[in-house]
């Protein structure tokens, strides 16, 4: 444990490596230290086999989680982190976690959302007995993801030690920057419909029909209908009172914009953290983020847009 580590203060580091030897030079001491302190470190990486072989018998003291199952939808991954930490990891003692996201077949909006997730981990785990080591293979890391690493991790680590990231950005600032990036324009053809308070049933039928035309399975269709209804109900209840919905298909995904031209949306980490009896605000948007593959929000003086992505296959 270094001078910057503490049992009750988050340590969030990024490991950028270009060879397996560099990866092992940092991760093996990290895991062995966790084991020696009486904990059961956690690994979520496709390099689990490499780590098992190098750890030998100590591998039985490490929990390995399949990254293909874990790194599906960013919002669900954040929820899983928090749930596992509270229910399984922290009860065993301080958490030592190695995480290496899977980047294959990620779209540009998804890559940007994973960067947001890394930033939000600094909020989610603040003041907890947690050491996070996020690994990035520079040989396959998308360039945009590489640009985010120094801004979302307070510390960078290598075989020679760790150092503070001079580019680290406050999560609230990073989040706001992400929300200023323009959304890509809808692809043709587009199906659209207006809505107001008295016709949400008609809106639900419209979205269900579009999902059926797109070939979404019933479970995915119901999830999209529920999500659109939740966002539209918020527009009616707390926004401008009426709005419009735009649907189109892109790269096998059905995309839906819920537009409120009459009001902006207060979006400070909206829907990312699970609601509690003491913090019920944002419960509806939290459910929407769990149901959809990706949710993008843009809000300003001229109104707001909530963009929902739903693919045919669950993630």
UniProtKB/TrEMBL annotation:
Pfam families the UniProt entry points to: HATPase_c_2, MEDS
InterPro entries: Anti-sigma-factor_SerPK (IPR050267), HATPase_C_sf (IPR036890), HATPase_dom (IPR003594), MEDS_domain (IPR025847), RsbA-like_anti_sig (IPR047718)
Domain Histidine kinase/HSP90-like ATPase positions: 198-308
Alphabetical UniProt keywords: Kinase, Serine/threonine-protein kinase, Transferase
Keyword Cell division found: no
Signal peptide bounds: none
Limits of the MEDS domain: 12-154
PANTHER family: ANTI-SIGMA-F FACTOR RSBW, ANTI-SIGMA-F FACTOR RSBW-RELATED
Protein name: Anti-sigma factor RsbA family regulatory protein
Organism: Actinoallomurus vinaceus
Taxonomy of the source species: Bacteria, Bacillati, Actinomycetota, Actinomycetes, Streptosporangiales
């Amino acid at each position: 444990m270094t001078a910057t580590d503490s049992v009750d203060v988050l340590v969030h580091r990024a490991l950028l490596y270009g060879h397996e030897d560099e990866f092992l030079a940092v991760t093996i001491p990290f895991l062995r230290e966790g084991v020696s302190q009486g904990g059961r470190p956690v690994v979520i990486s496709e390099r689990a086999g490499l780590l098992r072989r190098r750890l030998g018998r100590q591998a039985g003291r490490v929990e390995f989680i399949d990254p293909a199952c874990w790194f599906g939808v960013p919002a669900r991954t954040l929820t899983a982190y928090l749930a596992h930490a509270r229910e399984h990891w922290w009860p065993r003692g301080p958490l030592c976690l190695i995480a290496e996201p899977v980047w294959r077949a990620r779209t540009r909006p998804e890559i940007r959302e994973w960067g947001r997730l890394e930033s939000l981990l600094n909020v989610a785990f603040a003041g907890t007995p947690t050491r996070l080591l996020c690994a990035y293979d520079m040989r396959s890391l998308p360039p945009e993801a590489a640009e985010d690493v120094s801004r979302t991790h307070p510390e960078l680590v290598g075989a020679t030690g760790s150092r503070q990231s001079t580019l680290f950005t406050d999560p609230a600032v990073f989040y706001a920057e992400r929300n200023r990036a323009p959304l890509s324009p809808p692809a043709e053809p587009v199906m659209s419909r207006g809505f107001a308070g008295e016709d949400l049933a008609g809106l639900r039928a419209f979205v269900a029909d579009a999902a059926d035309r797109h070939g979404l399975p019933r479970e995915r269709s119901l999830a999209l209908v529920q999500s659109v209804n939740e966002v539209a109900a918020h527009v009616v209840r707390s926004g401008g009172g009426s709005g419009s919905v735009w649907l189109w298909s892109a790269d096998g995904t059905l995309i839906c914009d819920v537009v409120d031209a009459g009001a902006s949306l207060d979006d400070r980490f909206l829907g990312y953290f699970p609601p509690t009896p003491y913090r019920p605000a944002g419960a509806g948007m939290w459910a929407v983020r769990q149901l959809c593959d990706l949710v993008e929000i843009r809000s300003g003086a001229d109104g707001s847009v909530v963009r929902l992505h739903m693919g045919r296959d669950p993630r």
